[in-house]
Protein: Nuclease
Organism: Fictibacillus phosphorivorans
Amino acid sequence: MRIIRLILSVLAILFTLFMAIITPFALIGTLIVAAGLYLGSQKRKGNLIFSKPGWMTATGLILTFILGIALSEPVEQTASESQKSQLASVETKKAEEKEKKEEARKEADQKAEEEAAAKKKEEEAKAKVAAEEKAKAEAKAKEEAEAKAAAEKKANEQKNLAQKFGLEAVTVSRVVDGDTIELSDRRKVRLIGVNTPESTTRHEEYGKEASNYTTKELQGKKVWIQKDVSETDRYSRYLRFVWLAVPSNDRDENEIRNKMFNAKLVLNGYAEPSTYAPDVKYSDVFVKFAREARGKNVGLWAFGANGTTKGDLDPKEQKSTAVATTPTKPSSSGSNSTSTSQPKPAPAPAPKAEYYQNCTELRKVYPNGVPSTHPAYAPKHDRDKDNFACER
């Protein structure tokens, strides 16, 4: 009997707990059932607190059942609403997470697009720079090729002109004095048609300046030398004109003025023109340049109208021929008349190498006239007595 009561008590408690799980309000019946079981236990021990504890237990069971049945649907509804709320919360979280993921994806896509655009822009910039560098390189190569072709063309033109005018390319290794140089092959060259003041064995005014000028302009430089008629002088020096650059026309006055060193010596007053036949190719031009320099009192002309050394513009020495007269002796017939003997004729002058009737004829050969040292010079053609005949 005792075991049965224990089993029934356990079942009652389990039932009430089950109903309490369904609805919290069923806990009231559970408490009543527990109180009834406790009072019944006390009654059996002889401690009477409530006379009918069985009824209390039964009432608790009935109340638990009623409350469980009556309130189970709202509980289920509450549970459903709670679940719905939880589901809604989960959906909201999912939506938020989805939105965040979408935003993250958009940001990632935007970042990827920006990176792609930046990369494309960078590649375009690199391609542009590469294209510009390539264009510059091509332009530079083209320019260099054109410059090379122009240089080769110019070199060929200079070579042809040098051959045409009989120019020889040489290098000046040493300057002896203002009008004498030594080449790298040991040849000594005397400049034709000019004479600078002496500065070696003897010294003349402005000789050192002329020597220094020639050293500055020629020593160590590449130049072109040109022969006239004579190969060498009596000192075995080569007689040459010196060109600083190949002329396009070796008879053009501007070319001579700007490119021939012999002419520059005269123009700058470092030398006087000094002509010795047969090397007279530029004698008239040199005399013209000397007059320009003398008119400006340049260089050696600052020391006087005759300069400081010998040249074509120096006064020519006049030679006079004496005419002798002798008295006549009386005739042997003893006549008082006397007669005067005729003077002896002067010896005829030696014939000139070249002779012209007048300046018109002379200018056909020498358009600018000739200096006093020229074989075609004649005093009758030099009316102004400046030692230059038939000048214009």
Q: What stands out?
A: Helices lie at 2-22, 27-44, 53-165, 207-218, 253-259, 261-267, 283-295, 359-365. The longest helix spans residues 53-165. Residues 359-389 form one domain.
